[in-house]
From TrEMBL, chain A:
Its EC number is 2.3.2.23. Residues 2-152 form the UBC core domain. InterPro entries: Ub_conjugating_enzyme (IPR050113), UBC (IPR000608), UBQ-conjugating_AS (IPR023313), UBQ-conjugating_enzyme/RWD (IPR016135). Belongs to the ubiquitin-conjugating enzyme family. One of its GO terms (molecular function) is ubiquitin conjugating enzyme activity. It comes from Mytilus edulis (Blue mussel). The lineage of its organism: Eukaryota, Metazoa, Spiralia, Lophotrochozoa, Mollusca. This is Ubiquitin-conjugating enzyme E2 T. It comes from the Eukaryota.
Automatic annotation (TrEMBL), chain B:
Transmembrane segments: none annotated. PROSITE patterns: ZF_RING_2. Residues 299-354 form the RING-type domain. It comes from Mytilus edulis (Blue mussel). Its EC number is 2.3.2.27. Keywords: Acyltransferase, Metal-binding, Transferase, Zinc, Zinc-finger. This is FANCL. GO terms for cellular component: Fanconi anaemia nuclear complex. One of its GO terms (molecular function) is zinc ion binding. InterPro entries: Fancl, FANCL_C, FANCL_d2, FANCL_d3, FANCL_d3_sf, FancL_WD-rpt_cont_dom, UBQ-conjugating_enzyme/RWD, Znf_RING. GO terms for biological process: interstrand cross-link repair; protein monoubiquitination. CDD domains: DRWD-C_FANCL, DRWD-N_FANCL, ELF_FANCL, RING-CH-C4HC3_FANCL.
């Protein structure tokens, strides 16, 4: 009963004033299935990546938390290979910290924060967590590698990918954002 | 040959002797019908005139069954005659029930009252609506449902007066007498409606939506976390109305205090709205100085102001929070988040500020 009215308001808010680095929209005009994208924050190994998430809104929302899952693979101590996220605000009390005053926007913001600040004390991926604790440089290297492989190249259309590869061959730095690469090519030619 | 003897008005139409057209007579009434009655009874067809169709409406299944079971055409037609007879009896008896209302008399009564006052009337002359415009231009509708034994039994009246309209009626009374009693009542409530109109125009009324003439209560917004519901006596609208406060404890207790200390200053001759403001020592926000959205605070759980018919009346008592919730939303959350319950009260935390909050269990 409460779900439809609240989702209408939330979607309106999300489209009008989305949080920084986050976009969210309903999939096929449904109110029970949303899609979101989080930009990897600067200074994190996820920088330049675009991470896609899927959000299921349960029948009893907002009395129950939304079910959020990463679609894009991510190398993170609290996110497993199936995209499941270990975050207390996504669980019901007394174990979790979900409250109806939270919403999709605040949940996505806290996921964005979790990406920047992993919580190795409550790990979902023990290996990555140990790596994060005892060999941080390796963790950063791996996370960067995964981001590059799954969250950057996947988001570039085939055509641009070919262009990017040829750019790489001619010595253009790969870390530059894609649009700049194509623009540069346009300028050069 | 049986056919010719028993139903002489049915005429044979073809050589095979399967098609008949003509009339059957039931209780001195003729009904036109056309029958195909081939040897394969399942293919039999029956068509008839409108009068008969209306009469047989609802017993077509019975007729089909009778055709299939019949041994010959005359026997089927006899069955059918019996069905029509029964149907005719039923309609006759229902008609005779309606008889006593005499349209002629009612029309002459309406005429003496004035046709221009009549708003609507139904085909049977049992439901009538009259309009009365009072001297302030307010339009009042008097609805009447005439009793079948009119005028021995009084008509049922439907009005929008704040108290039930209970007119005096004798078997000699006319509709005009009733109308005059109604206008007299309307005039006696002028002061009440003036007071209510004053409130509706100069404050934010949260409830009821679009109040009609019969509504004696108004819920008036005072601030975003408090409102007062007054119930006015329609016969003495300028007296102190009964007040019910809604909202957060800290603002409501102040209002209650003001009311208790200013009770003696109430001026029974003065303006209701002004009296109320000085009683509570507040100035009600008006439509000219504020927007309604400021006072219709959304529920913190479902994000809407109106949930079906419910308004967010539960407010967090912490003055720094003051978040409003619908009763059903807050109850649902506290129950599903594992809270403490004692008698009919549920104890938990405000979902926004985590300060203690309580909610009564639903009465049903």
């Amino acid at each position: 009963m409460q779900r439809s009215g609240r989702m209408k308001k939330e979607l309106e808010m999300l489209s009008k004033s989305p949080p920084y680095g986050i976009s969210c929209w309903s999939k096929d005009e449904r109110i029970d299935l949303l899609q979101a994208q989080i930009l990897g924050g600067e200074g994190t190994p996820y920088h330049n990546g675009i991470f896609t998430l899927e959000i299921q809104i349960p029948e009893r929302y907002p009395f129950e938390p939304p079910k959020v899952r990463f679609v894009t693979p991510i190398y993170h101590p609290n996110i497993d290979t199936g995209g499941r996220i270990c975050l207390d605000t996504l669980k019901m009390p007394p174990k979790g910290a979900w409250k109806p005053c939270l919403n999709i926007s605040t949940v996505l913001t806290s996921i964005q924060l979790l990406m920047a600040e992993p919580n190795p004390e409550d790990p979902l991926m023990a290996d990555i967590s140990n790596e994060y604790k005892y060999n941080k440089t390796l963790y950063i290297e791996n996370a960067k590698q995964w981001t590059k492989q799954h969250a950057v190249e996947k988001n570039i259309s085939e055509e641009n990918l070919v262009k990017a590869k040829s750019m790489k061959d001619t010595g253009v730095k790969r870390t530059q954002p894609m649009c700049d690469v194509t623009n540069k090519k346009a300028r050069d030619s | 040959m049986d056919m010719l003897l028993e139903f002489p008005n049915m005429v044979l139409q073809n050589r095979e002797g399967t098609r008949y057209d003509g009339y059957i007579t039931v209780m001195n009434e003729d009904f036109r019908l056309c029958l195909e009655y081939p040897s394969d009874i399942a293919k039999a067809t029956l068509s008839c005139d409108w009068k008969l169709k209306c009469l047989l409406d609802g017993c077509l299944d019975v007729l089909k069954q009778r055709i299939l079971q019949s041994k010959s055409l005359p026997s089927f037609l006899q069955e059918m005659t019996r069905i029509i007879e029964k149907k005719l009896e039923v309609t006759k008896s229902t008609k005779s029930n309606k008889e006593p209302i005499k349209c002629g008399q009612i029309i002459s009564e309406i005429e003496s009252l004035g046709w221009d006052r009549l708003v609507s009337v139904d085909a049977d002359f049992t439901l009538l609506q009259f309009l009365h415009t009072d001297h302030k231009g307010r339009e009042h509708i008097l609805g009447m449902k005439l009793h079948p034994q009119h005028p021995v039994e009084p008509p049922q009246c439907i009005t929008d007066l704040p108290v039930p309209f209970d007119p005096h009626w004798t078997n000699k009374s006319t509709l005009e007498d009733l109308y005059n009693q109604f206008t007299h009542s309307v005039n006696s409530y002028q002061l009440f409606w003036d007071c209510m109109e004053d409130i509706d125009k100069n404050t934010w009324v949260l409830e009821p939506d679009n109040p009609n003439f019969s509504a004696v209560y108004r819920r008036i917004a005072i601030s975003s976390s408090a409102s007062v519901q007054i119930t006015v006596d329609p016969k003495q609208p300028q007296l102190l109305p009964s007040c019910r406060f809604m909202g957060a404890d800290h603002s409501v207790s102040q209002l209650r205090q003001n009311m208790n200390s200013n009770l003696y200053h109430w001026d029974p001759e003065g303006n209701l709205l002004e009296n109320l403001q000085s009683l509570l020592d507040v100035t009600f926000p008006t439509p000219t100085t504020s927007k309604k959205e400021e006072f219709s605070m959304e529920c913190g759980i479902c994000y809407s102001y109106k949930l079906e018919t419910e308004l967010p009346n539960e407010v967090c008592n912490d003055s720094r929070c003051g978040q409003a919730y619908h009763h059903s939303c807050l109850y649902e959350w506290l129950r599903s988040s594992g809270c403490r319950q004692s008698f009919n009260t549920v104890f938990g935390e405000c979902p926004y500020c985590s300060k203690p909050i309580t909610v009564k269990m639903p009465t049903t």
